[in-house]
Amino acid sequence: MKKTVFAVTSLLLMGASMQAQKVTYEEYDLDNGMHVILHQDNSAPVVTTSVMYHVGAKDEDPSKTGFAHFFEHLLFEGTENIERGEWFKIVTSNGGRNNANTSQDRTYYYEVFPSNNLELGLWLESERLLHPIINQIGVDTQKEVVQEERRLRVDNAPYGRFQEEIGKLLFTKHPYRWSTIGSLEHLASASLQDFKNFSNTYYVPNNAVLVVAGDFETEATKKMIQEYFGPIPRGKEIARNTFVEDPISGNIRKKVYDSNIQIPAIFLGYRTPAQTERDAYVLDMVSSVLSDGPSSRLYKKLVDDKKKALQVFAFNNSQEDYGSYLIGGLPLGETSLDDLIAEMDQEIEKMQTELISERDYQKLQNKFENRFVNSNSSVEGIAGSLATYYMLFDDTSLINNQIDIYRSITREEIKAAAQKYLQKERRIILEYLPETAKEN
């Protein structure tokens, strides 16, 4: 009886905790098409201003890749009212910090300030949109920055090219086939007008969502938003192409050589549905069962018990149009890559033929509950989530109820998703090998 009472009490406390995490927000459109989302939280004197643009690597010309990521750097160069090199100085001297990031689907800029500098954050982002300076000196400077970034993160990093290589194999028609950092050759050969055209096309208010989250007064903030963003002219409507991939047929196998590694790696890749599809959520759970932490199936079997792998992983990378599911590992000792594949396939087959236990299912639910709570634990995180759910999921309310989707997923669905998407006959196999393994 005591155990029952304790369990019920725990559930009630959890429910109260989840309810307390509910994010309130208001959203509306400016006349120029910019979407605005406001989340007021006056519990701490901090405010985040952020703008997400619906432009990523997938929107690029195949002969001009890397532009979206390049603009993430270029638009910190300066504006008509911010001298070159002064952007970061302005932010830090006013007690703030800022950053930006790019994916294949969107580009995101944000500042975090003491709340008395909210207006400064709004002005900075309006300057980026209304008065950017795109000139040759800025382009040349940032080309060097991006070149160095690629060297550090891709070309000279161990296993740094695996995502590029997998993209080429998984996608033959969709722009997801190239990486976000793109081609340095394309950037080097692009004209100044090419960069201006990209800015004029995608950096327009009707292709953006502005989020203000934190300590502010709503009416005063709306007035400032109108003052700084309202006069910005609406851009032309953006024509977006649709790409439909043919199903993967058979095992597509490729070898890639890397002079930065000494231990080979194996990667199995599967094409999966868009992030808005229910199956994408289910595949998140499949990957958690297989490799989330030392108690996961692949890690426990191959790293702990059989000691056949130094490392194993599985993750579901869901995106706006398609997703990719990757399973990989580094062999230990005399274990061959084919042995590792066979061991991985055994665990995949268990997922496809057996229901996970009730105990494992509950552990899974607890993990996703914790992730949900943590994602809404700061105004900075909330700002990013609000922008993402609005722009890429077309449903801002997911910030509060996405967890309900995970809660509703059954053990039967987990099994069915593994059967449907993790098929041997529809996957790519990438052998990532040391340069010394090249055959003469």
UniProtKB/TrEMBL annotation:
Keywords recorded for this protein, A-Z: Hydrolase, Metalloprotease, Protease, Signal, Zinc
Every Peptidase M16 N-terminal domain range: 36-151
InterPro entries, per database record: Metalloenz_LuxS/M16 (IPR011249), Pept_M16_N (IPR011765), Peptidase_M16 (IPR050626), Peptidase_M16_C (IPR007863)
Protease recorded as keyword: yes
One MF annotation (Gene Ontology) recorded for this entry: metal ion binding
GO biological-process terms attached to the record: proteolysis
Domain of life from the UniProt record: Bacteria
One Pfam match: Peptidase_M16_C
Signal as UniProt keyword: yes
Domain Peptidase M16 C-terminal intervals: 190-367
Record's signal peptide: 1-22
Family: Belongs to the peptidase M16 family.
Protein name: Predicted Zn-dependent peptidase
Lineage, uppermost ranks: Bacteria, Pseudomonadati, Bacteroidota, Flavobacteriia, Flavobacteriales
